[in-house]
Structure formats: C-alpha cells, structure tokens
Design brief:
The chain is an alpha+beta fold. The chain contains 1 helix and 9 strands. The chain has one domain. 21% of the residues lie in helices and 45% in strands.
C-alpha cells in the first residue's frame, strides 16, 4: 500500500516537472531567462526547454510587425497610360 502511494506521488511529481520544463513564447515577442537574478539567455518565439525550479522567466516587449510606406513610383504601360504604384513592406522593427 505504501509503495503504491509513493509511486503515484512520484509520477505526479515527474509529470509536473516535465510540464514546467517546456515553455512556449508567443509569436512576435521574446522572454529572458534569469538564474539567481542574472541574465541567462533569451527565449525565442516557439517551444523552448528550460530547467524548472532554478530560474525565472521575464517577458520583454513585443515586436509587432509594422507597415513601412515608400515614395510612390510612376509606371507607364505599353498603351501610354501612366499610373502610380505604391510600395510597402512588412517586417519587424528591431
């Protein structure tokens, strides 16, 4: 009886430790990992493995995608029509 209770408690502890060691940072942001208050590494977006119970995670500012507009271009077609083309780019501003 005592061995069964010990086994169940041990399995629960192992499961909680495994769940605590996998962290998922949201897309467009990053987290920093600290141990004893010192910077350890930056966690990139996606699944990351950490050592649980040793350090802490701190969220850093997100970097959303931004729309960048450029000066319009003029283009002429074969039939002589002139039109303006708008150029735009999407990306992260670091």
């Amino acid at each position: 009886m005592g061995f069964t209770v010990f086994g169940i408690v041990f399995l629960i502890l192992v499961l909680v430790t495994l769940l605590a060691s996998v962290k998922s940072a949201p897309q467009g942001s990053g987290w920093t990992q600290e141990r004893s208050g010192r910077f350890q590494r930056t966690l990139k977006p996606g699944l990351n493995l950490i050592i649980p119970y040793v350090g802490s995670l701190q969220a850093i500012a997100s970097a959303p995608n931004q729309k960048v507009l450029f000066m319009p271009l003029e283009a002429s077609s074969v039939i002589g029509a002139i039109s303006e083309l708008a150029r735009e780019a999407f990306g992260r501003k670091d």
